[in-house]
Write a structure and sequence with these properties.
Layout (H helix, E strand, L loop, with lengths): L1 H4 L4 E2 L6 E2 L2 H7 L1 H4 L4 E2 L6 E2 L2 H12 L4 E2 L6 E2 L2 H12 L4 E2 L6 E2 L2 H12 L4 E2 L6 E2 L2 H12 L4 E2 L6 E2 L2 H12 L4 E2 L6 E2 L2 H12 L4 E2 L6 E2 L2 H12 L8
Antiparallel strand pairs: 1-2, 3-4, 5-6, 7-8, 9-10, 11-12, 13-14, 15-16
GO molecular function: DNA binding; zinc ion binding
InterPro entries: Zinc_finger (IPR050331), Znf_C2H2_type (IPR013087)
GO cellular component, one term: nucleus
Length: about 240
């Protein structure tokens, strides 16, 4: 009946927000206490809200309930589907003013801009290494913690990164769903496919801010930068 009456008898002592159901108030309180009461029984990762845990569980179950009605590709999160659909519509409203490269989301543009600015706001809590995005820092920190949250169900092998799990899955399945329409070469991982496509397009998105030379891969740019810095990371024993 409270849906119809609008009655909200459960009020938060911290901010005054009211709720119709006691359970909703209890979940809301996690915002203030920052208590992560919802834990994944697969990897132990904890979350503030049950909805976040349910979304995370799809990493383990492989459930992808959100499907693109144009190509059939499926996603675990609705937001990922929405970003994907911009590939079909051609909408890329976010442009980098440094190199004029366009992006489908403000988030992707912001991450890209750090290539030009060199900004690395995320510092490892275990060492002095810094990163341009929080996900890269999180992946790096697993070197220190030894955490391996991604498990392959058929052989129980565990991995620290989801990309490592995907590479391992290809060993079992042999699947190569990404095929180049220029030369017919197929790839198991989308990232490898995208890098390959630059052979045909000539795109070189990684540019040296010292001399202007451009590269198809970030690792190539990093190797090139040693020329300017004088760094010699590989020494002969």
């Amino acid at each position: 009946m409270r849906v119809h009456t609008g009655e909200k008898p459960y009020t938060c002592d911290h901010c005054g927000k009211s709720f119709t159901i006691k359970g909703h108030l209890k979940e809301h309180m996690n915002i203030h206490t920052r208590e992560k009461v919802y834990s994944c029984d697969q990897c132990g990762k904890a979350f503030l809200w049950a909805s976040y845990l349910n979304t995370h569980l799809r990493v383990h179950t492989k459930e992808k309930p959100h499907s693109c009605n144009l190509c059939g590709k499926s996603f675990s999160r609705l937001q990922h589907l929405k970003e994907h659909q911009k590939i079909h519509t051609g909408v890329r409203e976010y442009m980098c003013f440094e190199c004029e490269k366009t992006f489908t989301s403000a988030k992707h543009l912001k991450l890209h801009e750090r290539i030009h600015t060199g900004e690395k706001p995320y510092k490892c809590s275990h060492c002095e290494k810094r990163f341009s995005d929080s996900s890269s820092r999180k992946k790096h920190e697993r070197i220190h913690t030894g955490e391996k949250p991604y498990k392959y169900p058929d052989c129980d092998k565990k991995f620290s990164h989801s990309t490592q799990l995907k590479r391992h899955e290809i060993i079992h399945t042999g699947e190569k769903p990404f095929t180049c329409d220029q030369c017919g070469k197929s790839f198991g991982l989308k990232g490898n496919f995208m890098v390959h496509m630059r052979v045909h397009t000539g795109e070189k998105p990684f540019t040296c801010d010292q001399c202007g030379k451009s590269f198809t891969q970030l690792s190539h740019l990093k190797g090139h930068m040693n020329i300017h810095t004088g760094e010699k990371p590989y020494s002969c024993d």
